[in-house]
Amino acid sequence: THDDPKRVCDKFNIPKPHTCKNAHKDGIIVVQSLNDPIQEGDAMITQQKGLPLILFHADCQVAIFYEPKAETLALVHSGWRGTNLNIYGKVINKMEQMGCRRDQILA
User: Fold this and answer.
1) In 3D, which of 38, 33, 46 has the Cα closest to residue 94?
2) DSSP 8-state class, residue 104
3) Residue of 63, 67, 70, 68 lying closest to 88 (CA atoms)
4) Rounded CA gap, 89 and 86, in Å?
5) Long-range CB contacts (within 8 A, 24+) of 21-24
6) Which among 3, 15, 30, 93 has the fewest CB atoms less than 10 Å away?
7) How far is the C-alpha of 53 from the C-alpha of 34, rounded, in Å?
8) What is the pLDDT of residue 13?
9) Residue 12 has what DSSP assignment?
10) Euclidean distance between CA atoms 53 and 55, whole angstroms
């Protein structure tokens, strides 16, 4: 449930993670702080150290991308619509725009 992350965060004394409202499309959200408003989208990218992110999903795929030199993290939710809209490719392109090197991105 959506309450589980709060319990885990409380136990380990970490901030409640930032999330987004899955839209089953190809929206990408760049998260700068925990105070950012929760937006509709299917991918979140951050370069902020210590900023936890979480995605909720059922039968859709979730991927994690990380580029260590640029210290950039992306979480991607992709169902059949997102896959058809090439959300994974769009996230990689956005990460490149943020200073990541495509050949350094880990999945």
Assistant:
1) 46
2) G
3) 63
4) 5
5) 22/55, 22/56, 22/57, 22/60, 22/77, 24/60, 24/79, 24/81, 24/82
6) 3
7) 9
8) 87
9) H
10) 7
| Residue at token pair 């937006």 | 39
Closest CA to 27 of 46, 45, 40: 40
> Burial of 36 by CB count in 10 Å (0-12 exposed, 13-18 middle, 19+ buried)?
middle
Concatenate the DSSP letters of all residues of 64-87 into one string: EEEETTTTEEEEEEE-HHHHHTTH
- For residue range 46-92, list pLDDT tens digits in order: 999 989 999 888 889 999 999 999 999 999 999 999 999 999 999 99
Report residue 6's pLDDT band, with 50, 70 and 90 as the boundaries: confident
Query: What pLDDT is recorded for position 9?
Result: 82
Q: Which amino acid is at 16?
A: K
